[in-house]
Amino acid sequence: MLPKVWPAVLALGWICLAVGAAQGLMALFSLAVSDGMEEVFAGTAAITIVFGGACVLTTSGRHFELRFRDAALLTVVSWFVVPAFGGLPLLAAPANLTAVDAYFEFVSGMTTTGSTVMSGLDNLPPSILLWRSTGQWIGGIGIIGLAIVILPFLKVGGMQLFRLESSDRSDKGMPRTREIAAAVGRVYVILTVACFFAYWLLGMSAFDALNHAMTTLPTAGYSTHDSSFGYFNSPALEWAGVVFMALAGLPFLAYLQFARRGSLWDRVEPQIPTFLATMTITTVLLAVWLTINNQVDFPTALTKSAFNTVSVITTTGFASVDYLQWGPFVTVWFLALTFFGGCAGSTAGGPKVFRYQVMFRVIAQHIRKAIHPHAVVPLRYGTRTLSDEQVWSVGAFMFLYFAAFAVIAVLLACLGLDVATAISGAATSIGNVGPGIGSVIGPAGNFASLPDAAKLILAVAMIMGRLEILSILLLLMPSFYR
């Protein structure tokens, strides 16, 4: 039985029309700042709008409604198709990227990974820099909607734990789902505006502040400078970045709980204390290490450690220094952090904190039952009792995540990449982190020198990681469409 693709085609058409409109607005911005890119953006806007319009006109006269499985199909297709149109402006001068590089760059942007093939950012036209940041900001809000609306209903990777209250597949549930999604969107915008003013007041230009705010809240990591946050050499800006990256790594529904109940700690999710504790402990540990072994004064060590630790844990990908120069211990530690991730329901990538917590609870239950075979030991996550379905869903995701990482690393190694690049490239792409380790794709390098085949593999890996792997596998199952 073939799937009914018309709802997804219609929705994809409207998405492409929106992307085309955004490119048209960027043409007006280019005209206003006189950076010479207005014709490029106008031309790419026309191409994108023609494609989007064709999708809409093709489905005209058909009567259907967008169901959740249609939304799942739309989500996967959109993440593969839209970057092809979003990357069109990067094909022209002065960026002059190849088709593969342009696609890689915009996939990295939309998935908020932050890996880049571009250099010489300081000399690029403002409209190109703003377009890259806009792609990441739009990708961030799309990711939040995916995490709180689509994935819980698809029961992907245990995300049903975070299914919205009073929301289901019925007509009565949908208005509440839309209401909460809209409220989360408002929180996203408010935090972005607050981040912009913080950066601006602490010394960034208005343009830099806008771009970095639009890539901080999505935990995305694109910068307007090759040296990222190191360009500003400002501890105050780094601490502001720490605050907003950490806020972006928290579940956005928690902000609504705070607004409605008056306390963030009222019925707080167990993942939040673990997330905050991990960042704090790692920051202090690495700061002490730098102070003792690298003779860095403790305040400076604490600042550098905090910024880069939070950047990696939240999968933002900003860098204020080349932390690989801190020694093998720190290098391995940061590689391990790429497998951590932020909270479920945030813009951060990675396996997510709650899945590790669930697996640790499963292991603890197994040990207790080994000691007391007849004991009844229910699995709990906060105030909720975990069902077998939820536990198996988390376990399946974790297995597929690390299996996918291994396969990607082997494929990259087969293409001739060195061990550090292959392993960290696989980890950073599927975790949507950004920089890897080693001299090629570390925080001081980029992905430009990799072969095209490697870039395409990494692009697919970034999309897989962002869509939680299982949602792609679901679409390959015929039973999903029945």
- End-to-end distance: 8 Å
Based on CA atoms alone, the radius of gyration comes out at 22 Å
N-to-C SSE series? HHHHHHHHHHHHHEEHHHHH
User: Can you summarize the main beta sheet?
Assistant: 2 strands, antiparallel
Number of helices: 18
Number of strands: 2
Derived structural class: mainly alpha
| Spatial strand arrangement across the major sheet | 1-2
Low-confidence segments, given as residue ranges, are 165-175
Bulk shape: globular
Average the pLDDT over all residues and give the rounded result.
Answer: 89
The fraction of residues in strands falls at: under 5%
Helix content: 55-70%
Question: Any overview of this molecule?
Answer:
The chain has a two-stranded antiparallel ribbon with strand order 1-2. Residues 165-175 have low confidence and may be disordered. The protein contains 18 helices and 2 strands. 63% of the residues lie in helices and 1% in strands. The protein has helices at residues 6-33, 38-58, 68-86, 99-110, 126-154, 173-201, 206-216, 235-248, 252-261, 271-293, 298-313, 328-337, 353-371, 388-414, 419-430, 438-441, 452-466, 470-475, and strands at residues 380-381, 384-385. It has a domain at 389-481. With 482 residues, the protein is mainly alpha-helical. The protein is globular and about 70 Å long.
Provide a quick synopsis of the model.
With 482 residues, the chain is mostly helical. It contains 18 helices and 2 strands.
